[in-house]
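anyone seen this seq b4? input:
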Amino acid sequence: MAVPSPFLAPHPLRPDPAVPPDASADCPPSLDFGDPASLATLRGLTDAGAATRLLHECVAYQRALDARLDALLARRPDLDRAAASLLRSAPPLLSLAASDASALRDSSSSTAALADALSSRVRHLDAAHSRAESALARAEAALDRSRALDAARRALAADDLTAAASAAHEFLAIDSRFPTDDDLRRDLLDIKRRLEGLARRRLSAAVDAQDHPVVLRLVRLFPLLALADEGLQVYVAYLKNVVALRARADFEHLAELISATTQPTPERPDFVGCLTRLFKDIVLAVEENDAVLRELRGEDAVAYAIIELQEECDTRGTQILRRYADYRKLARLSSDINSYTKNLLSVVGSVANAAAGNEGPDPREVEHYLEEILALTQLGEDYTEFMVNKIRGLRDVKPELGPQAMKAFRNGSFSKMEKDLTGFYVILEEFFMVENIRKAIRIDEPVPDGLTTSMVDDVFFLLQSCCRRAASTASINSLLAVLGGATSLLSNEYQEALQWRMREPNLGAKLFLGGVGVHKTGEEIATALNNMDVSSEYVLKLRHEIEELCPEIFHAPADREKIKSCLSELGEINASFKKILHSGLEHLVASVAPRIRHVLDIVTTVSYELDDAEYGENEVNDPWVQKLLLAVDTNVAWLQPMMTSNNYDSFVHLIIDFIVKRLEVIMMQKRFSQLGGLQLDKDVRSLINHFSEMSQRPVRDKFSRLSQMSTILNFERVSEILDFWGDNAGHLTWLLTPAEVRRVLGLRIDFRPEAISALRL
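predicted toks r here
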């Protein structure tokens, strides 16, 4: 049978890349003659020249097609020979492949059948082996059950409850794997019931006798008898009872000491120690029995024990705090404070109470109560934090136990009593702070060898102590209340006390009596200014200290925002103090300025239209600078030892501002020669050098305008200003406006107005 050759199938004529195109075609045709759509283009021809050109292109295209057809036909003999060779070699190869495939199929079939048979035998063997192992396990279990039952009987007869419980537990473990309902099981259950009864009775007796080793040994039997929950409840109740007995004994001793306070006794009621021992007992009950609790019910037992023991803390801890509040009569004391003044921060209220002779409670006694309350509340916070962290560290507990435990700590009666105690603390702290600050203001006096009076250090030490104590309570409301009171005191009473010392209507006459500075008056004024300066610094230090302290105690972002908002008021107080201080320094400068102004008036008579001889004379006899500096030293420098460095520098700078402002006005009214400009430059440098020695702050910028004026007045020609103006200024910043520059240039007697007007600045 002949196989048709695929090489003889008809194909469409396509250009063969192996066949070169007709050499007569110089360029590709402008129309694709093989595309039927080209007929429409040909039919639409109207130009004979275009038709002739396309005809030549079509002839060339036809010749190219003929050449390609000839090349393809020339390859046909080779293709026919290849096809014939393939037909001759194909039948033997196909026969060989068919026989090999048949052999492979037969081999695969026999192998598959053998594998199926072998797999079936393996499955049968495996099933038989499993049944044999099960039978052996049952036989061994039966023997183990018998041995466990015998061991339980012997241990029970020997009164060895631990061994009996272990044997019973082993029997029940085997029975759970191989359930039976035979006589052995019934006998074992009977033994188990007897064991449970003995364990309960003996555990109850051990609990009553407070025999901890026996209680510990017996409670460990309950998980073996499948009574873990009952054992946990009994053991936790035992721990609660132990804590309660110790707490009751401590509290009774405390009550005896309280009742005996009317009689002299070396021992005082120690509420802090009593509460500390209660917390210590509870923490030790949890920590030292952690392993036992975990044996009973894992981490759930630890959480359960914490919740139950917290109930004891609520009972006993609340009892201690309430007794403390009664002992110190905190409710009555708070009522007395509220009746003493409705507003502890009111200046009017303070005056009214003083007029009525009502001094209120003793602040020293109140401070002692504050320290006690702080110690008690800190103990409570430390205990709560420890136990809450313990609960959070438990990972494998029931979902409801965690929130239940947290609720026991946050909403229990002890927590509520703590909040009541904190409420008393806020009232006492505000009273203590206000009364002591008012007292510090009343007894204010100069400090020997000091630059301030006593009230500055006293007031800020009190504020620092009160704010630290408020933060230590870990109560955001307490801290905010104390901070609010502190800011109110600083911005009202304390600020008024600072300003009172600065109010001096006739300062100039008292400061310079008979033309000489009065040391006592200068010291009083300087001290008042120093008080304001140091107070503004202390306000910032207080704010910074609280900002560093609070993040360690308050972790909630909302609490931190509240504190930040409250502390911003301290920044406003600092700004207010600085403003008042600046006003006071200006008042002092206004008192000193008339003693300097008469020297500045001499400058108006000094000529700067100098020739060489006059310039040389000024070198020998300074016309005004030294007189001015002498007046400054006489009327300003004597105050330096009495003022803080910051105040003295500010004072000197204000004096400089006064002098420079006056000199600028005077110099703008004068006429200058070039030597006069050089003289002004020397005068300005002398002033800069002298005032630089007087002040620790830079003073050169104060004389910048005068220095620039002297620079302009030293120019050789008008156009020289352009070398220092605009893009040529470099690092120089001109403080003179273009109009002022032209005006200064106009002060030179040798500069023509036309040249100055022609400048483009």
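The first helix runs from residue 38 to 43. The CA atoms of residues 471 and 479 lie 5 Å apart. kinda curious what u guys think
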